[in-house]
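Quarterly update from the structural biology core.
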Amino acid sequence: MRETIDNKQWETALIADMAYEATLTPNRKLSSIFFGGGTPSLMPPKLVERLITQASQYWGFEDDIEITLEANPSSVEAARFNDLSHAGINRVSLGLQALDDQTLEFLGRAHSVAEGLAALDIAQKVFARTSFDLIYARPEQSLKAWEEELQRGISFGTNHLSLYQLTIEPSTRFETLVRNGTLTPADDDHCADLYAMTAQITAAAKMPSYEISNHASFGQESRHNLIYWRYQDYIGIGPGAHGRRPNREIAHGWQPNERQYYATERHKKPENYLSGITHNGHGIKSENMLDGKTRAMEAMMMGLRLREGIDIDYIMEQTGASDIINQTALTHLQDLGFISTNGTRIAITDKAMPLLDAILPQIINIEG
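Predicted structure, tokenized:
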């Protein structure tokens, strides 16, 4: 947060937004809290502590609640780690992204490798659990170069790694560089080789993938992200935040198999968010009912990112949807070794994970 931001105003607004959601989700306990988006590690630790305390009062916490904060690995943010730990943060996710300065400059990162590793060292001393991310499949990155960088990353001894392939997103600097011929992205075959090697190295280090881009020691998976991928309920508070929760009309009589849910989205612009709090008591921009078919498709798209896959009968039971699997495509992909099944559970195989975006539309019966 910049010094010009009125922290008291934001504290009041965020707590009001939280209070609104608490009235719609009674008798629930929180299993995780995630401070993400922007630079939450620049929030005053006292504000973080206040929000955590208020969340506990509104909902109550599970005994082993995971409270994660995303942080840039700068010296300014690292200096706050001790106070953030005392505020209640027990897990931190650092955006290291690369372990050489030339790549960090290419990626547009402000920190150096030395600064990032200093922040990592502090984080590991302060927090019970630490994760960091690295980006691979960078232009002209060889298998050997990535192997050395990944092995170095593993040697730091964290219990969780997020390893993302560089993607060229529309309307970004990278897309412009590709369009004018300045940047040549890694080809699909090379990306597949990099992915396979990544899986082998992390598995050998006893940090196998549990999701297409996330690797962890046993029991150290990100509980908060598993909530997304397992398509469970979550509340989004703050500018631009998204959430999934039961229909307000059934919230007070909520049962696990209720089928009516809302997708919520908060105003993204801070000014509009604060105005919404003032006039409506919440920062919601849109609140849309999700029908059973939509929920089932979303649950499949999220769940098949996981190594554990999905239980199709459970999804149908929870959503009321039917005929959500294209059985012909499923059988064909299984014959090709891209899909594994065990009773009602379906999972993408390791060799098919790099092809996930192409496989998902084939499996899901959109017309059903």
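The chain is about 45% helix and 20% strand.
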